[in-house]
Amino acid sequence: MSGTDSTKPWLEGGPVVILVEPQLGENIGSAVRAMGNFGLSRLRLVNPREGWPNPKAVTFASGADRILDHAQVFPDLRAALADLNFVVAATARERGMQKSVLGADEVAREVVGRMAGGEEVGLVFGRERTGLYTEEVSLADVILTLPVNPAFASLNLGMAVAVVAYEWFKLSSGGALPFQPPDRYKNADKADLLAFFDHLERELDAALFFRSPTKRPVTIRNIRNIFHRIGLTRQDVATLHGIVGALVEGRGLREARTAARLEGRREEGTDAPGEGEADA
């Protein structure tokens, strides 16, 4: 899906996203792209392995550069959490801790409620290969995990951020979609619809569609019900009139061409000298 519109305001805010010792710039960029998609703008990096800034992160951010430009770098997780009031740690493994374990939708509700009360909230994601260490999870208030295949619970860093960011944005924005279908034309009134039925049935009669006189009424009802179920607009009915008219006109042209060919053959047969005769 691609729908970037530079005329729209850039949404900012939301919980802080904290990536602990991310290994690849590409994964940082992918996470940032997901943040930009869902209105998160505050990024903190804890001791990124390849240093910072990272040009590969810019490439994979796909235009969400402003998030990278304002990213903060910390030497350890404790420093990155110091000014936060509530922290969520993402992990796919059970850690034997007496902490609430929430799904992404539950985390979204918790985050929205706490931020509405003025709290600062952080979402912590671990290393691509090993995730968060148990000691790091212990610094969080709740644990976030996702209902994934237990035999393969390995999400790419960007994917994990995207899932959580999506749930947060869906809830905080009221689930409003960026666009809706355009307003429909006014539905056709019955007079327009009946006129179309008359037109269609007249031409079907002419085309010998109704081969059984006894079944004709039932067939007509079925045809009318098809169009009633669609809920035709006045524009739809006008288009259907045009379609039927074009089909009739096309049939007439084909019949005229066929008649002309037959007439031409007859004329050739009449004018040609018969067998055994010579031209005068």
UniProtKB/TrEMBL annotation:
One of its GO terms (cellular component) is cytosol. GO terms for molecular function: RNA binding; tRNA (cytidine(32)-2'-O)-methyltransferase activity; tRNA (cytidine(32)/uridine(32)-2'-O)-methyltransferase activity. It comes from Ancylobacter rudongensis. The keyword Manganese does not apply. The gene is trmJ. GO terms for biological process: tRNA nucleoside ribose methylation. Catalyzes the formation of 2'O-methylated cytidine (Cm32) or 2'O-methylated uridine (Um32) at position 32 in tRNA. This is tRNA (cytidine/uridine-2'-O-)-methyltransferase TrmJ. Residues 16-166 form the tRNA/rRNA methyltransferase SpoU type domain. Residues 260-280 are annotated as: Disordered. PANTHER family: TRNA/RRNA METHYLTRANSFERASE, TRNA_RRNA METHYLTRANSFERASE SPOU TYPE DOMAIN-CONTAINING PROTEIN.
